[in-house]
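So, can you check this record?

>
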Amino acid sequence: MSTLWISLLIIAISGPVLWLLKPQRSHWFALLAALPPALVTGWQLLQLAPAAQGQQLFVSLPWAPSLGLEISLRLDSLAIFFGLIVTGIGTCIAFYTNYYFEDDPRQGFFYLLLFSFMASMLGLVWANDLLSLFVFWEGTSITSYLLIAFKTGDKSAVEGARRALIVTTAGGLAMLAGLLLLGQAAGTFRIDELLAQPHLTALPVFPVALTLLLLGAFTKSAQWPFHFWLPGAMAAPTPASAYLHSATMVKAGIYLLARMQPGMGDSPLWFWPVLMIGTITMVLGAVSALRYTDMKAILAYTTISALGTMTMLLAFPGEEAALAVTVTILAHALYKAPLFLMAGIVDHAMGTRDLRALAGLWRGLPWVAAVALLGALSMAGVPPTWGFLAKELLLEEFYHLATHNEQIVGGLGFAAAVVMAVFSAGAIFGLVWEAFLRRRADDREPAHLHHAPSFWFVAPALLLTLIGAFTALFIGQIQTIVTAPAAVIAGAPIDVTIKLWYGWTPVLITSLAILAVGLAIAGSRRFLRNTLNRAPARLNGVYVYDAIIDAIYGFAYRLTRIVQGGPMAPQISVTLLAGVLVLAYALLQVDVSKLGMLESNELPLAPEFLIFVVAIVAAVTTVRARSRLSAIISLGVVGVAVTLFYVFYSAPDLALTQLLIEVLTVILLILVFFRVKPDTRVFEPNRRRYLRFGVAIAMGLFGAGVVLVNHFFQVGPSINPYFLANALPIGQGGNVVNVILVDIRGYDTLGEITVLALAALGGFAVLRSPKLHALRRRINRLRRRPAGDFQPAPPPLSPPSIGGPGGHLEVGND
């Protein structure tokens, strides 16, 4: 078995194992939980150098060989880069979780969900098949829903999980349609073969397929206007927020764009939507972060801004933009995940994350303060952090465009990047100042330290911030970790040496100015916060989402009342006429000139015509009968006519079955109507009668049309020869019908028998229910009550005659 499959299996089975071991019993389970992702991380690090030299690892597992489908995995530099983020951050989250859910009996279940998500995410970034990618994609959606809604008693968590599931799953279904269109048009579902085709953007389905793919990527990565689900998902437990919404799941859409960029990035249909949506998201997220006082809300909106930055950079082909993307992805994972973990530790220790109730935490929580400060410096882009490198490369990309014949795009992009960086720095500086450095909180009753965290609780976040803050000093030695995946995105080798210091360039001066302005924004945060909170509620994405959902429910309610709010007959008519319309549309697409005529041996004979006439007369008599008995008898005649057709066409088994059913139906109808009171005649307007007559005629034409179209326009070879040839060797029987029912369609027949059996058991249970027994005993007591009793006994419940008074049925609205 390939190491790729073994790695996925290790991650997948770790969750159930931890669930069974009940890890809440001891903190030693933190090490056990961190071990599997740490092993996979170490293995991927060993594969980084060979992958940078162009070596790739391919494995596949047959899925549906008859359809040519397989689960295919590929390990190249881009897959390793995202895989390292998934398992590397996952190692720290797994260790942190044991301390966060200290003594919580549901800790094992959380590990089960966490590792299931980790396996799905790892399979997604390793997938080399479009359909395999979609399967893992939806796996992340389902497991993330369960993680967000982990606190089932928290209404906001459940609502946030539902909102995230609806948005991301709808985008995933759109993406599936795009993947199918692209794979069918290109003739392959393997991603490496697909991207190797030279004229991929020239395919006729490319515009539609690209639009659907972008919808999937934008919804998953919380791009505008789908960004609103991410802040609501912050109601999840902090380990889930730190893992899903800073380092992994929200980057699934970024990964999809990065993977598809080499084959689609040269199209204007790619460039403008990705650039515009990314730019709007980048600026909107950064500015919106200043509105909030909840730590996780601030971090969520700055995450949206960072995701917009990555998306915007992926609009540009070339090695500079690709390198800026990979550095931004890595920097964001290394500072945002520990900042989320920090917020969880503060909430765990103080009982709140609201900045208005916090102050001076550096005294009681010094290690947590160190995490917050180092993470803030990297997020704001202070040298020598990875955040500083990411900001420099972002500004350098647009500065280069602005000075090399792309003044409009480069200038506007540079300005948008500056605005994003300024507000992001202001938001994180304000968070650190209010929670850790200032002396007095805004609230009259500030929060107090309830539960001091141990050093090991803070250790995972501290480790990540140290890596993000100081390993950039050795960028010359470790730059392969970002240049190798950037080469995959750019589709060409990257010959760039990354440095922390290029001299006093305009970009560096701009970067320092951003820090200064960010500090000023942090100082005026209250004014800006109050100003932003005056924005109309209709501009909020959640408001728009709720309005859309309410409109859908309202429309469905009104439509249901119209279609299903009346008697049964109009409801059935709607369904039947819908089928008629489908057939009419199909007939309009048929070339009538090719309509054949019946062969001489296909023309009905005199006995068949006689059976036709008997069936038609009996059917008309059924609906025109004025007594129930007459209607039941004429309906039985219709069934007998169908039985004669089977006899005429040498199908005695079907004829016998039909005859038995008709006899049983007649008996049951007589027994039922024997107990039902006669109806009174209800006036029915002619319009309704004509409408029902039209529905009946339309359904007759529908049945005849289906038969004739199937006869004259057979789209494929008949299946009759197959059954005739295989009835004996497969079913060991000469009766083809019995073989089809019992052997070839055995499961279908078993399902039908099961349904009938369950219905019979249900009816028997209802009839034998205690309430019915009590009612029956009460009726019997009333019948046996003596005549001299205080209340006279009711007359015996004698059943009415079948036809009512006089044996006739007054036709009503049955």
Remarks:
- Residues 796-814 have pLDDT under 50 and may be disordered.
- The longest helix spans residues 155-186.
- The longest strand covers residues 57-64.
- The beta strands are 57-64, 69-75.
